[in-house]
Design a protein that fits this description.
Rossmann fold, 7 helices, 6 strands, 40% helix
């Protein structure tokens, strides 16, 4: 029997970079499908793990990171996708992959997880790098196409193709998955 965890990557974001406005726009489209699955995971007491950039705060305190990231572009996204302190795990990461320099692998081992459902931004960078590291650690991967967003659609499609063809990830839309 498989045990899955939902990883939500970099959704708490300030979008203050060159393609930030475009990424924020694409990010709004993935919130509802992610929240639908997150609700199911929370109801079934299945692990939901947020992994986020630290913004030089270097504290795994999502309230501080959310306060730092709040602005006109991010406010609506952060308010909808924020972790729930009593239910969700929250880790910070120093680089692109959620595994690099974090306790993620140790946490997943303690939770006896063998399948990861990846969600978040940017699909062509942090989600892709996390998927690669998860694959090397022999996790089963599910990355619904409506769970990730990149700066542009072409990069997002390319990342999904790579994750499906190279990392053996299931990339169907979330409403077509049997979870």
């Amino acid at each position: 029997m498989t045990k899955a965890a939902l990883l939500i990557i970099d959704m708490i974001n300030d979008f203050n970079f060159e393609a930030g406005e475009a990424l924020a726009g694409h990010t709004k489209n993935i919130i509802d499908p992610i929240l639908t699955l997150k609700k199911t995971f929370n109801e079934k007491d299945m692990p939901v793990v947020y992994i986020n950039d630290h913004y030089n705060l270097w504290q795994a305190d999502f309230e501080k990171i959310m306060a730092y990231c709040r602005n006109e572009k991010s406010e609506g996204i952060i308010n909808r996708i924020a972790p729930i302190k009593e239910q969700d795990y929250f880790l910070i990461k120093p680089k692109h992959s959620a595994f690099y320099g974090t306790a993620l692998h140790t946490l997943l081992q303690q939770l006896k997880v063998d399948t990861l459902i990846l969600a978040g931004i940017a699909g062509n960078i942090c989600v892709l790098f996390t998927a690669n590291d998860a694959y090397m650690r022999e996790y089963n991967l599910i990355i619904p196409e409506d769970f990730i967003a990149s700066n542009n659609d072409e990069d997002n499609k390319y990342a999904l193709t790579m994750m499906k063809n190279v990392l053996s990830a299931v990339t169907k839309p979330s409403d077509q998955l049997d979870l």
